[in-house]
Design goal:
- This protein is mainly α.
- Among the domains are: about 45 residues, no CATH class; about 70 residues, no CATH class.
- Helix content is about 55%, strand content about 10%.
- The strands form two sheets. It has a two-stranded antiparallel sheet with strand order 1-2. The protein has a two-stranded antiparallel ribbon with strand order 3-4.
- Helix 1 packs antiparallel against helix 3, helix 4 runs antiparallel to helix 5 and helix 5 packs antiparallel against helix 6.
- The radius of gyration is 30 Å and the shape is flat.
- The N terminus is likely disordered.
Length: about 190
Amino acid sequence: MKNPMTPAGIEPATFRFKSHEYRTYFKRNINKYTMAQFQNSLSYESWDQVFDGNDVNKTFNSFLNTYLRIFYARFPLKKINNETKAPWITIGIKTSCIQKRKLYLACRNSTSPNIQGYYKCYCNILFKVIKEAKKHHYDNQIKNSTNKNKTTWDIANKETHRKTHSTNIKFLNIDGISTDNQHLLRIPLITA
């Protein structure tokens, strides 16, 4: 059966590209707990080969091997995918975005108006689907919240990429003298 979105003479199966791959990153989890484990492992290690050696190169290599073995054991690399964590992104939207990328590459490498028209139509439909998915997600978020005004403003700030600024006072300048005394910072200023 012919896809109604496919322009005349263009079959979706003719677009063959590499599958979309997410970039993967590696990260080490270094915190107080893992650092304490690392220090503990270093303290239990026998350093006899390092202190008893006569050759500087062999001594250094022995130290480095021992240190790196413990380091890699206590701080292993963890694989992190570069995927967004937006809750409104479904598997269907991800698949459609991958398909859109394939169509973009086909459109970029072709001068056919059929392919370009199909790409524009696909982009418009995907834009509407994403807009509806966001709307549905945010409507549910507002409906289920206890403070609807705050939730609405949080969503608006998130969509406009605005960050809330902290209004905490960390320093106070009194008659040219700067102070960070928390007791003085809590005293309300009286203006005459």
